[in-house]
Amino acid sequence: MDLVVPLQSRRVKRALTVQKLNHAVPTVGLIFSGVQALQHGAQGFELLLAVVEIVTSAFLIVTLARSIRAARAAAPPAHTTHAHIDWVDIWAAGVLFAEAGERWHLRHHIARPIILNALLTLALGLAHGRMDAFRRRRRAMRLTADGIHIPGKPFRSFTARWGEIAGVTMADSSAEIRTHAGRVRRLDLADLENAAEVRVALKEAQRRVQSC
Q1: Which residues, 6 or more positions from 109, have their beta carbon under 8 angstroms from its beta carbon?
Q2: Average pLDDT of 21-40?
Q3: pTM for the whole structure
Q4: Alpha-carbon distance 136 to 8, whole Å?
Q5: Where are the alpha helices (DSSP H) in the chain?
Q6: Is the predicted pLDDT of residue 202 greater than 70, yes or no?
Q7: 122-143 burial, b if ≥16 CB within 10 A, otherwise e?
Q8: The domain over range 139-210 is classified in CATH as 2.30.29.30
Q9: Cβ 195 vs Cβ 137: under 8 Å
Q10: Strand, coil or helix: what is 142?
Q11: Which long-range CB contacts under 8 A does 74-77 form with residues at least 24 apart?
Q12: Nearest to residue 23, comparing CAs of 107, 101, 124?
């Protein structure tokens, strides 16, 4: 029976979260612009734009802060579910649309690059579930009837038949799969959110190696 276990790296999760910090850059200017418009008694479209600027920026900052806090957590919450929508990207798209509206209001100029970026960011946020599932499938350790496959950097994935494996060893924070030919694949268990699940899979790998 095939066994598939995603390798949920904390480092990768933190890196993806840090990349989203760029989304927060326009928020300071938009909040200042929105508050300034309200103080000057904005009406009509200017009032609507000011409210949108403040709301989208505030929600982006709060959502991004929660995302960073979750990425820094020592362990994932129990019964973790994988969201189908990335709200950081959704609110970031809102901020970009608000920025495009601000450009049009001040200069009567359609900021096509910003609008295109907003549409792309919105699409990424809505497609988060499918993209996350794809990443999880690619970053998954697979035990099949023939052998084991462990993903890695491009051209550095580890694949071996059971008969080629000399041993599977585990320590407190790491694991190692070594072949008779001297190839070695190490796993940093301390970095994995689902280390317990990976350990179970590696014990099954040990059993299959011993039965060869």
Answers
A1: 103
A2: 88
A3: 0.72
A4: 8
A5: 10-19, 27-39, 44-72, 87-107, 112-126, 128-138, 195-210
A6: yes
A7: bebbeebeeeeeeeeeeebbbb
A8: yes
A9: no
A10: strand
A11: 75/193, 76/8, 76/193, 76/194
A12: 124
pLDDT at 79: 44
- pLDDT (average), residues 103-130: 92
Position 52 pLDDT exceeds 90: yes
**Two tokens, residue 90:** 């959704």
The 3-state secondary structure of 144-180, one letter per residue: CCCEEEECCCCCCCEEEEHHHEEEEEECCCEEEEEEC
Residue with tokens 């418009």: 37
Share of the chain above pLDDT 70, in %: 95
Q: Is 99 within 8 Å of 114 (Cβ atoms)?
A: yes
Spell out the domain ranges in the chain: 9-137, 139-210
Q: How many residues does the chain have?
A: 212
Report how far apart, in Å, the C-alpha atoms of 188 and of each of 10, 42, 44, 108 are: 10, 56, 57, 54
How far apart, in whole angstroms, are the C-alpha atoms of residue 153 and residue 24?
30
User: β-strands 140-143, 3-6: how paired?
Assistant: antiparallel
Alpha carbon distance 31, 12 (integer Å)? 31
| pLDDT tens, residue by residue, 68-105 | 887 776 555 444 455 688 999 999 999 999 999 999 98
- What whole-number distance in Å separates Cα of residue 185 and Cα of residue 26? 43
CA nearest neighbour of 172 among 153, 148, 196, 207? 196
